[in-house]
Amino acid sequence: MKKILVIGATGQIGSELTMELRDRYGNGNVVAGYIQGAEPKGELKESGPSALADVTDGEGIANVVKEYDIDTIYNLAALLSVVAEGKPRLAWKIGIDGLWNILEVARENHCAVFTPSSIGSFGLTTPHVMTPQDTIQRPSTIYGVTKVTTELLSDYYYLKYGVDTRAVRFPGIISYVTPPGGGTTDYAVDIFYYAVRGEKFICPIKQGTLMDMIYMPDALNAAITLMEADSTKLVHRNAFNLASMSFAPETIYAAIKKRLPDFQMEYQVDPLKQHIAESWPDCMDDSCARQEWGWMPKYDLDAMTDDMLEKLKLKLNR
Ligand code: AKB
Q1: CATH code of residue 251
Q2: What is the pLDDT of residues 55-90, one digit of tens each?
Q3: Do 63 and 188 lie in a common domain?
Q4: 179 with 142, same domain?
Q5: What are φ and ψ of residue 205, in 5° steps?
Q6: From the alpha carbon of 182, which atom of ligand 1 is closest?
Q7: Which domain holds residue 283?
Q8: Which of 108, 204, 216, 219 has the smallest number of Cβ neighbours within 10 A?
Q9: Are 154 and 195 in a shared domain?
Q10: How many domains does the chain have?
Q11: Ligand 1 pocket, 81 CB below 6 A?
Q12: Backbone angles phi, psi at 201, to 5 degrees
């Protein structure tokens, strides 16, 4: 049985990934790693062990890994793209200095490591339609710079030290559980909250701006399936393009309006978010993930919209 540490367990992906891993591997085998001020609460706290695991403190992480006999680390510590632009040094400290700490602990304690990359690792000069797995990566954001470095450093630790590093390039992740904080794709989550509350949504992204998105259950499944995949079949370890749906604001608006006909949206474009969005792919080619470890999303835009609206109505008592 695996013994897993999730770093960033109280964040957007971490809170759901920890619970999914506990379902699959047993509650006692998955440690929720948190930072001071973001302690686990409720079911996350009650259902299994948790430990202070701050990526900026390598010794602290090493102690947790030894105490719980950890063999797999899911490292989700990062600042999202918009927040990172305001705090570039901190984004590097968490994303890269922190990753270095984790990779060192993994090398010394023989752990496998999952550290996600993102569509943010691409830039304006990347081909935007069916973005290939191996292509130009010259991002203009600090978020992108840290994500490309994440991919390279993870490859380096695999090639030089044999650390079993694996990763995907996540699209914007949509979920009804924990809201995202400070990303460019957040609008595609926010729009659902406004729709269910019966409020008009002000969209910060221009009409016609396409970005890849994924529903949380597919994102979790991708991370876990990749970590379980036969390593001899993996050519691209860090990191696999992952696609399941690509849409522009008017398309998701139409999908919601079809189900909630009174819903209204207008545009007030945020220049920073728009600049970032335009530098990212319209849609990625994820055929390597499909071939090398059997990636297959379950949710398209319609299936996700139905589920999001149903779950959010319950959550918001509407
Ligand atoms: C962001 O918008 O910053 C993230 C991402 C696509 O990596 N959701």
Answers
A1: 3.90.25.10
A2: 999 999 999 999 999 999 999 999 999 999 999 999
A3: no
A4: no
A5: -110, 140
A6: 3
A7: 172-213+244-315
A8: 108
A9: no
A10: 2
A11: yes
A12: -100, 130
> What share of the chain has pLDDT > 70, as a percent?
100
Whether the upstream peptide bond of residue 91 has omega within 30° of 0, thus cis, is no
| Catalytic residue from among 68, 74, 143, 215 | 143
Q: Are 205 and 93 in a shared domain?
A: no
| Residue 58 and residue 148 share a domain | yes
Instruction: Let me know whether 224 and 276 are in one domain.
Output: no
What's the pLDDT tens digit per position in 199-241?
999 999 999 999 999 999 999 999 999 999 999 999 999 999 9
pLDDT digits (tens, 9 = 90+) for 30-54: 999 999 999 999 999 999 999 999 9
40 lines ligand 1 (CB under 6 A): no
Helix (H) or strand (E) holding 239: strand 238-241
Residue 115 CB less than 6 A away from ligand 1: no
Establish whether residue 185 lines the binding site of ligand 1, counting it when its CB lies within 6 angstroms of any ligand atom.
yes
Phi and psi dihedrals of 206, rounded to 5?
-70, 145
Cα pseudo-dihedral 160, 165, 169, 175, rounded to 10: -160
**Nearest residue CA, atom 5 of ligand 1?**
172
Closest CA to 168 of 284, 80, 61, 85: 284
The rounded mean pLDDT for the chain is: 97
The answer to whether the CB of 141 is under 6 A from ligand 1 is: no
The position carrying tokens 């047993």 is 26
Same domain, 209 and 224: no
Examine the domain organization and report whether 146 and 295 are in the same domain. no
